[in-house]
Structure formats: C-alpha cells, structure tokens
Amino acid sequence: MTTSRTFLIEPNRLFRQGLRHLLSGTRFEAGAEFDTIKLALEAGDAGFTPDLIISGQPVGDEADLRTLREVFPSARIVVLADDMSVDVLRAAMGAGADGFLSKNVSPEALIQSLQLVMLGEKVFPTNLAAMLLDINAPSPQNSIRGLSPREQEILQSLVTGASNKMIAIRLGITEATVKVHLKTLLRKIDVNNRTQAAIWAMNNGFSAEGAGTPTRGFQAASA
Fold it and tell me: In whole angstroms, what is the distance from residue 76 CA to residue 120 CA?
C-alpha cells in the first residue's frame, strides 16, 4: 500500500486523537500532529515535507492557511470545519485548500475524499459550491473585460477543477499553451493560483455550464 506523509493539525486533543486512530493503518496515517498551524509551519522550517495536511483549525483568519500553502506548495491540504458556511468555504478555497469537509463527515466519506484529493481532485460539498456560484455574481459583461475568449474558456474550466491536461484535451490545444494562457490569466485578474482564479470566476458570473464534463473536478463529500 502506498503511504502518504500526513500532518494532522487539530486544536482539540480528543478529536485529534480520534482522527489519528481513524487514520491508523491507512495510507493517510498521521506522521506528525500539531495543535496549531503555526506549530506545523515550524516543522516545515525544520525540513519536514508532508504529502497531505489535514487541518481542523478554524479558518476565521485565512492568513495561517495561506502561509501553510506557501510553505508546503506540493502538499494537498484538506480543511475539516465546524462552520460549514459559504464564507468559510470561500476563505479556505482562497487560501489554497484542496478539500473542505465537515467534521461530522462519516469515516468512510473522509477516507474516500482524501483518496480523491491525493488523485488531484478538489473535494467540497456541492451544496456550498452551488451557493457560492449564486452569491453576489456581478454581470460578467463587465467582469471579463481584458480577458481573451480563450482565457475565458480556461477560466470557466477552472470552476470545474479541471487539470491543465483536461483543459488542453477539451480545447484542442497543448498543455504548454494552457500554461501560458493560465499564467497571463492569473496576472490579469490579480490572483496567485488556479483555486483563487476559480473563486474569482464564480464570484464574477462564470459557471461550469458549457465547460464540458471533466473526469475530475469538484466532488461531493457525502456525510
């Protein structure tokens, strides 16, 4: 069984121990545990490089989560939250989370979601993602000013969580071309990564409609 080096961040000791026990014997078995994100960041300074980070620290201030993404750019980050609101989802996504799940999620759904995240998929509750699409979406007529038609197509694909390879196949272009367009796109809308671009798109009238049907993308997290 292939294993992943996992950081477990959870301020509640009882919940943290329960989660550690749940993950024991799986590929996601915790290799290190921390009370806070700041302590995990100190481990990063010491040279530790996890493949997966599971954080149950509240996302009230997304700065710590954003720093976690910067320090561990190759790690998958999954947020376990008590507050399953659209605002918290938006903050987690904007800070670079790959997954956003309720702390009440079933053990089976948690393991399945972690497997999907490690395959490169984005895992969020579909009901929250749908609500995010509908909130404060200004007219795209003004929001897309300065974006080429191709950049708009790529931006629309990002909403579904499509990879560069999937976008290239759907648009009939090379992955290298997708990367060039994506770099320009991120600069134009002033964001740092594809997850932030997806949030920008959702807040500016873009949706998954017309973007094709990706084999991977935003996945529902069952309870």
Answer: 8
Phi, psi of 77 (to 5 degrees): -120, 125
pLDDT computed for residue 143 by the predictor? 46
DSSP letters along 62-95, please?
THHHHHHHHHSTTSEEEEEES---HHHHHHHHHT
Question: In Å, how far are 4, 58, 62, 109, 174 from 14, measured between CA atoms?
Answer: 23, 16, 24, 20, 49
The model's pTM is 0.62
Quickly count: other Cβ atoms within 10 Å of residue 37's Cβ: 22
Contacts with 123 (C-beta within 8 Å, 6 or more apart), sequence order? 78, 98, 99, 100, 101, 113, 116, 117, 218, 219, 221
C-alpha R_g of the chain: 18
pLDDT bucket at 140, cuts 50 / 70 / 90: very low
β-bridge mates for residue 123, sequence order: 99, 219
Mean pLDDT along residues 110-121: 88
Q: Average pLDDT for residues 125-152, to the nearest whole number?
A: 60
